[in-house]
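Standup, Tuesday
Yesterday: got the pipeline producing structure tokens again.
Today: sanity-check two examples.
Blockers: none.

Example 1:
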Amino acid sequence: MIRPGETIVQVDVSINGIPTSVKIASAGYRVTLATTSDYVSAQLRDYRPSIHRVPKPLFTKLLLEGRLSATTDLESALASSKVILVTSHALGSEEETKALMNLFKRMAPYIAPNSLLVYGGLAPPGTMEEAISTLDRYSRVEVEKDIGLVLITPLDIQAETYIVCSPSTEAANAVKGFVSTIVPSNTIKLHRTFKEAEAANLLLVARQLITKTLSSYALLLFRQMGVNVEEVLGLSGCKPPTVVEDDPALQMAMDYLLSEERRLPQRLMLMRNAARTKAALLEATAANLRREIRRSLQRRSKDFVVACVFERESDKGLVSSILPKKGVKVHFYSVDEVEPKVEAGAERVIPFRANLIILAARPQSISERTVCRLKEEARLVDLGCIVSV
């Protein structure tokens, strides 16, 4: 069993693993994020709402209680626990897979006998087999005999099912108990074959991607019909995606499936058409937004004032390209600037009266409380995490 209070060493080379570290620490475990990057190590300790995705008081509490820490000393970290979770993704290119294998190569000499080695990243089918071969080559133990090897669905993915896969029933049950403290236990499935579980994880992400694309497309149709979309969302229980979110995992899965689609014997192009639909949805959203602003400009003698709350620097350029070039003043604020103001109870989140606020951030990166405050201050258009196409 992996009991709350136990130390889990999480190995990741990017900031994408930080939300998972916080999630595990919030469930009662001690997490040491072991990374080869000084930047990633610093980012774990420097609070940013869009990265850590919890209120600052909780983040501070986790740090002060020692439940969340980071180190670049991989050897010492691996010696401190027999539960190791690797969360680096290996999808998108051969270089990504090679980087993951190099990480396993560096870890191999320091993994102690009777450890649990859990991989929670997205990877092409066959990756775990390659990882075992790499570990065998550089480890001081018999990997499949002395180490419990487990594959899980990445914990940062919003999925209906989470897979725990291991040839060892004992290892699988131990990790299932751990995962059930973070996600609902009735969503967890056990499996024994790595290649099938790797493919299933990709399918979970692909289904989410296609569903969001179809939902966005349907909402656009309903708007053209004059249907009250807010009521449609309430009755259906669907979330309101204005455009498809550019979640890194979704994008990696799409890129991988696009590359594999070329090998099909028939000329099937589902993923290619999904990518085109995403691009068309973004353009449709931009066109509607420009149309609404131009109508407002015709009724105003002054400039139309827009505030954009963004998550990533790349979104600023995209929002600028969407908006009309004349008669519009745009001010940009990052999620990490806005959230602390809401937490502190500031009288105004946006320091001037905006005619329109554009939100370009993933739902998990901005609190509902902040969204409500933005709605109070001006008309809000939620673009989700908009994609550059």
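Example 2:
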Amino acid sequence: MGYDYLKKKVSDYTDKKKNTDEEDLILSGDEARLSELMQHAGMLDPDVAEKLSRIAGDQAAERDRIEGEKEVLKEEKTELSGRISGELGKIGEAKGKLDGISDNKYAVGADSAIRKCEEFIGQLKDLAGQLGSDVSDEGFGALSGGTGGSPDLTGYPDDTVLSLNDNSSEQTAPLSSPTFIIPGQNTGGSLFGGGEFVPLLSTGQEIRTMILDGRSVDVFDHPFEPNDYRICDQGSAYPRDADGNSTGPTGTCGCCASGTVINKAGGHTSEKEVVDYALSHGLCASSGGTAPDGWVGILSGAGISASDNSGTSLEELAKKVEEGHGVIIGVSARTYCREMYGRYFPGAADGHAMVLESVVRDHETGEIIEYVVSDSNGYDTYDACHRVPAKVLEKAYKRKRKAAVVTDDVIW
């Protein structure tokens, strides 16, 4: 769960609570005045008494509404407090393990990472203070991993974010709280780069102005150049049998997208390494199919903290990309690229995970014209790079319940 998301939810909560408290105060005053009048109802004209009675009924209905809103706010506060505690648990665990490696060779950048953790902890505690919740430095994480608000995509056979090649109804195993893997302290499997990832203060990429199709545009990074970090040729990680069929999972788009983000962050992993890790840790189906919680778990296994941001608009995700965060999205493959996947039809089992690679904006207005994605079904790093009109990708993204995962920190 990203900080920006939590900050917005807390802000929404405090605004609603302020409005409800004001309404409650005004109604309480009106109730007091009416109660005083009703004490003399027997001395009033019958018509006046009847009108007062109707007003009392309206006030009772308004009281019920306000009390109902208070209950909703109470539940919302409890949920948000749990989420903040969960995030504090994750970052607290990470900080503790970073503290533990300060004397070995993996300590490069550890001090800045620890400061980043402390800064994030302070921000989360500020959010808890705005809620009026008390949090302590102990017992964090008791609620972590189980309070996410993203849609359960595995519950929708037509909207499950698996691979285009996986039409089965097999469910993705539930994910427990992500594990921060540090060399020498955890033997949970492959580390995809040694767990040496540390948060960056800002992206090392740039926005370039160029002429594209005769139009002056601003393009984030350099997506059209050969980028070796992209994992391509999805489904080729395992050898084929005599009949030409793969001996391993082929619906591995989510694993490939996660691996691409890991490589963007400085790791050196492959499709097979990621799939083997995901299978052994219950983060994907036997076919290789995944959901957002699996992407989070895979990235966590590489030491990269990430959050399920499902439901976030593509425009907001574009900002995350331009800030240097890694972003994975789930889309309807047939909607996003009919030429590759065929015509879309309702109920199509065409969920496909990809990396949101870059953003193309009009140089004058800043309007998003296109997105650039890395599609693991491409056979090489050039073929994996796709320019997609903004409206097309927005529709494809919406058709798969706006599934998205964003790295918590800047990774490149």
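Quick observation on example 2: The first strand starts at residue 207 and ends at 212. The longest helix spans residues 46-100.
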